[in-house]
Amino acid sequence: MSKSPATPLAFLHRSNGSLVRVRLKSGDEFSGRLEICDDHMNLVLEDVKEWDVKTGSAIRRYGKIFIRGNNVLFIMLNPEE
Predict the structure, then answer these.
(1) Taking the CA of residue 45 as centre, how many other CA atoms within 13 Å lie in the half-sphere pointing to its CB?
(2) What digits encode the pLDDT tens for the residues 8-53?
(3) Predicted local confidence at residue 80, as pLDDT
(4) What angle do CA 57, 37, 63 make, to 5 degrees?
């Protein structure tokens, strides 16, 4: 009996506490520690940096942010900053 492959959402749920980089459909990009992810891919990140994607430099810092799942373009786990 073989196990069914893990879904991307299940993988993301197991990644709570990991560093992530999130790009939004608007082009904005944030990195931080994934505090929680729900079944709609709503995210809460802590110790967050907002990035200027053109220059690759951090432009703002936030303690904690909420990102609505329908705004997410992609999520990168354990990014190299």
Answers:
(1) 25
(2) 888 888 899 999 999 999 999 999 999 999 999 999 999 999 999 9
(3) 77
(4) 45
For residue 11, give the 3-state DSSP assignment.
helix
DSSP H helices in the chain: 8-13
Q: Give me 19's structure tokens.
A: 């560093």
- Non-local (6+) Cβ contacts of 58 within 8 A are 49, 50, 51, 52
The pTM (predicted TM-score) of the whole model is 0.86
* Nearest of 52, 69, 73, 80 to residue 13 by alpha carbon: 69
What span, in angstroms and rounded, lies between the C-alpha atoms of 62 and 51?
12
Domains in the chain with CATH codes: 8-77 (2.30.30.100)
pLDDT at 9: 87
Angle at 6 between CA 15 and CA 4, to 5 degrees: 155
